[in-house]
Amino acid sequence: MRLLLTVLVIALTIYSLLDCARTPDENMPARMPKFLWIIIIVVITVVGPIAWIITSRVKAAEERGGYVEPTVWSSREGTRLRRPERPTPVAPDDDPEFLRNLDRDIRKRRKQEDAGNDGDGDNGDNGNNAD
């Protein structure tokens, strides 16, 4: 168990160091220089890497309007955050084709009801003859 925790702490520290080293200087969180972040990550064993991960993701989320994206690694540009292309959902009442089909279906039902009522002999007034 102790070995597992040691490996986990080392892996977390290495990940944080690599992520920090690959982050461009202008994207450093908390307005701290990169060398200071590296010292914090290495010296403060568990808290340093976790602090880096949290602050870097929060800064990225603020830049993206509150939306954290998965990290995409690139050897030339460092860590980049990218928003996947997603179609914007359209409400049914905003979709012209949906409204056209709905109107067509309503007219079709009315014609069927009118045709069914004409065959019954009551002309669709349900016995309420006010004449």
UniProtKB/TrEMBL annotation:
InterPro entries per the record?
CLS_N
Where found in the cell?
Answer: Cell membrane
One cellular-component annotation, GO: plasma membrane
Q: Which residues form the Cardiolipin synthase N-terminal domain?
A: 11-56
Record field: compositional bias (Basic and acidic residues): 77-86, 97-114
Q: What keywords are assigned to this protein?
A: Cell membrane, Membrane, Transmembrane, Transmembrane helix
Where does the chain cross the membrane?
Answer: 36-54
A Pfam family annotated for this chain is: PLDc_N
Q: How does it sit in the membrane?
A: Multi-pass membrane protein
Enumerate the residue ranges of region (Disordered): 73-131
Question: What name does UniProt use for this protein?
Answer: PLDc N-terminal domain-containing protein
The protein's organism comes out as: Actinomyces respiraculi
